[in-house]
Write a structure and sequence with these properties.
single chain, 69% helix
Length: 224
């Protein structure tokens, strides 16, 4: 009887673990709009969608493709690095991804692609053994290239401990804010406000609003 109970119970345990793991890895969110009564509830979604929209815009992708890739298990840092190297070479992202799976080393991937190091951002070249730092270098380079901002702002944010999600969000918000980038970050990290509230103050309440704002910012920068 005990064995029978165990045989029935074990699949339920494994199913619960599988469900928990898929929930963690799933790029989906219950809260997708700002609610003043639950000011922080949609912050994870806002951070993710702001980064996804930027990545899609700078590399000529659809945001749906970015979300599908993440839901398929592709790491966000890998997306930044892989698409950056695809942009610098004649290869597709899929080919870059396959190369990395084979080489297990970004330096070897670059050598295989025959990309001249001088064509790459110096910070990128200096961080070839650290994928997180590689992705940060790519994000900073793309933000500087597509938005009107000073490199000092990015450096100060990184020194303040901002990750890619936070850096992208701050640089997105600071374009229409009277506050400095480091002030915006501090207001959230110190618990004085939320990303959702800061977005709402600029009339941005959901993912569609954020995508439209990115498009506007990119167009304004092209005209300068």
């Amino acid at each position: 009887m005990r064995i029978l109970s165990l045989l029935i119970f074990l699949p339920l345990i494994f199913a619960s673990f599988t469900l928990a793991e898929s929930t963690v890895n799933c790029h989906c969110f219950q809260d997708r709009t700002y609610d003043p009564q639950r000011a922080h509830a949609a912050d994870p979604y806002f951070l993710a969608t702001t980064q996804n929209a930027l990545l899609a815009s700078v590399f000529g992708l659809s945001k749906k493709d970015v979300v599908r890739a993440k839901m398929g298990g592709v790491d966000g840092d890998s997306l930044w690095v892989g698409h950056y190297l695809a942009q610098q070479s004649t290869k597709s992202f899929a080919e870059i991804e396959a190369l990395f799976s084979e080489k297990k080393n970004w330096q070897e991937v670059i050598q295989h692609l025959r990309i001249v190091p001088e064509r790459l951002d110096p910070r990128f070249v200096a961080a070839l053994n650290d994928q997180k730092k590689l992705a940060m270098a790519v994000v900073d380079e793309q933000l500087a290239a597509h938005l009107d901002l000073a490199p000092l702002q990015l450096r100060q944010l990184r020194e303040q401990g901002a990750d890619n999600h936070q850096t992208i969000m701050v640089m997105f918000l600071v374009q229409s804010s009277l506050l400095e980038a480091t002030e915006l970050l501090a207001k959230v990290t110190e618990g004085k406000t939320s990303w959702g509230r800061l977005l709402a103050e600029q009339g941005l309440f959901n993912g569609s609003d954020i995508e439209a704002k990115w498009y506007q910012l990119f167009e304004e920068n092209r005209e300068k």
